[in-house]
Amino acid sequence: KTGDVPSWCTASLSDSELQFPITGDASSQFITLTVAANEYAPHYVMKVPIQASVDTMYGPFGFLRLVNDYNQTGTLNFIIAYRPGLIVIPENDTLAVIPNESSYLRISITNAGNARTVVHGNIVYTPPDWIKMMTDQIMLEVNMTGYAYLFVVPPVTYNGTDTIILSFTPYMADDYSQHGDPVYVLIRVIYEP
Fold this sequence. Notes:
It is a single chain. This protein is mainly β and 193 residues long. The chain is built from no helices and 16 strands. The chain has strands at residues 9-13, 33-37, 45-54, 57-58, 65-67, 70-79, 86-90, 94-96, 103-111, 117-125, 131-134, 137-140, 145-153, 160-172, 175-179, 183-191. The protein is rod-shaped and about 105 Å long. The N and C termini lie far apart (74 Å).
């Protein structure tokens, strides 16, 4: 049988009882352990206790013990996979700008994944000849919210509306080879004289 596991996990064995013939030879049988974790599982090593036991078995007349009772408990370790997740919300989806003057926008980023995450911010597109800068990296613990800032200066000749495209990509802080898909944000920029 399996022991206690956290509430965000289930663990079960394919059989609760295996029968072995009593012979002088060693024998083995296979059993399947199924472990499932839900979306709230943190990224860490999970331990699943497994207990095996044998009951005392007596011979045909009930006097001679053929097998003594025995219990043994072991632990199987599993690593819960990194589940990236970001919630990205700009302070506003429109940014009013003035040519040749600096404008900024605050962007809220929440780590909705299951491990400490480094978020890489990138400016994918701005109108031509704009000066632009953005917070390029934020470290967030699980359920923590941080902020990125976008700063832009349109050229003196700018007039009208356009779009800025930003991307935010989550990387597991302890292993950059594990990452999620980028989250894209579109910001409409407007200059109305």
